[in-house]
Amino acid sequence: MGVRLMVVDDHRLLAEALASALKLRGHRVLAAAAPVAGAADLVISRAPEVCLLGTAAPAEPGIFDPVVKIKRERPQVAVLVLGPVPSPRGIAAAFAAGASGYVRHDERIEGVERAIMKARAGEAAVAPQLLQSAFGELLNPAVQPDDEGQRLLRMLTPREVEVLVRVAEGEDTRLIAAGMGIAPSTARTHVQRVLMKLGVGSRLEAAALAARTGLLDRAGPVRGTSSPEE
């Protein structure tokens, strides 16, 4: 029997893609909504069995406030956090807020589904390798941990960063071209160059990578920062 669930993520493309994949596997997805800021009220009003809540910054103060509110108003709702590889503090904060589990953004759909079933059953849903990684970091903290998002951001030009932001927001080539004041062929070239630099094969993979590494949050406001191209 399918699970009644909601998918909430700041990045609409990711939320809708995951919701569609779960629907195909027989689950009843009530909504795929963004942004996360309004997630708590929406989840409280719809009362799903499980809520998948996306975040790009699990260690940021207050990021799990929606989880606290959901569990206070709807304690029967199991909340699964979707995010990048977390720090020990990120995992601890998620569970302290009342989350039932933590799933990586790039987890396979089978892994997401297993976590959903565990959460609905009242079990903690977190991959053993995530716990091992977290404990390993606690025991052997890196002096200067590699910031993958910042590294990837340095690979892209300002124009390519804007293209990536628009891709993550679900814009197709026509909308990207119109929004940036460039020809569709130029927009298509920019998209292909972004995919090549990020080492991914599709727009969805690019959006997932950007969300997982926090690249979009580091990018800041980028629209209109460069002159139109032909």
Q: Short summary of the structure?
A:
The chain is an alpha/beta fold and 230 residues long. Helix content is 53%, strand content 12%.
Describe this structure in words.
The chain has 230 residues and is α/β, with parallel strands linked by helices. It is built from twelve helices and six strands. Strands 2-1-3-4-5-6 form a six-stranded parallel β-sheet, with helices on both faces. Pfam families: GerE. This is LuxR C-terminal-related transcriptional regulator.
Major beta sheet, strand line-up: 2-1-3-4-5-6
Which percent range describes the beta-strand content?
5-15%
Largest sheet geometry = 6 strands, parallel
Shape: globular
Q: Bin the helical content.
A: 40-55%
Please tell me how large the radius of gyration is.
Answer: 18 Å
Q: Main traits of this protein?
A:
230 residues, alpha/beta, six-stranded parallel sheet, 12 helices, disordered C terminus
